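Contributing new records

If you add data, match the layout below exactly. Sequence lines come first and carry their own label; structure lines follow with theirs. Keep one chain per record. Anything else will be rejected by the validation script.
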Amino acid sequence: MRRRIPLAVLTTLWLSACVAHAQTPPASPSPSPAVAGLEQAYERTRSAPVLLLLAQAYADAGQLEQAANAVERLVAQRRGLLPPPHSPLWPAAERNDRLARALATLERAAPRTRNGRTARRLPREGVIPEAIEYHAATAELLLGDAHGRRVIAVDHHGKRRTLVDKLAGTPFGIRLGPDDVLWIAQQANGTEPSALVRVELGTGARVAYTHAQAKALNDIAIAPNGDVYVTDFGAGALFRLDRNAGRLDPVVAPGGLRSPNGVCVAADGKAVYVAQGVTPVAVDPASGAATPLTHPPELDLLGIDGLYCRAGELLAIQNVTFAGRVLRLKLDGPHTVSAFEVLDANHPEFDLPTTGTFRGDTFLVLANSQIYLLPGETAPRKPPSKRIVILSYPLPR
């Protein structure tokens, strides 16, 4: 039985990205803002990933014939897209034969690989991690546990210890900096604002930084010069910490990006790459100018969660319009993806893969975050039934 994730998790990325830019209203009244926004977005972009999100919105709204029609068009386009396991399309197909046939065809055509090898399988102890980081000094994996509002460390035997406990909000992004300082992107909790939290692991000392317009700080990157950047999914912004003033300053002002998520900084510090909207952008850290990356037309880049810089390339994890993909993007200059490699697609362990980390020349991926189980989403509201799996991908140079 496929459990259902709320449509908001699947469509927020594109509603915020597209509704504000739509030029014409839909041809006929739509029963939901999700359908209306995505109809406009698809008319504007003619993008296959947007068509998949529109199919999901139709299914969620009970417009099953429209959903079937959209999936049939996806079959004809042969882009390899596949709804995530918790898409509303799957339960809707049980009520509509045409949709069931179209989904079955789409599923058969979707590429499936098992290239990722299991690096670690955690004990089943109620952890719902959204973020992962490798601590080379201790050979431990650090996990931001969204269920317990803490950060834990797990060694290669599976033994765990709590590094940071009793966070005011849910930890999303985590990043380990110099001098054993851990940075945490903490979500708002109703009384405390979303904040970037600095934790000295040696002493436990904490300092929180925020901004008046911060809404949902998400992921973190540290530049070669020590600057700390954090994306804000809710505000559509990229912030940088002003260490002298003790505050977050916008590099890209709120509203300048479309649901920004993963972020990383080029080795020379001249570009900050941000996953957002239809394609990632390269942000000039001096001017804040955001340039969309050009890429091969057959490459779909919507729905990137984690994004990571490596010499001359980017590593990306997708989870919105695929059941899960891990991509290796070759860069030709700061603004061009000249080639790409799909390291994995629809791996059987994928269950909302979110983020990754480097362990030397190996890329480690959090394969099954199960963040749809977080309190505040629709049922089930309980700890995950699956053990958390970390997959590894060697990256020969």
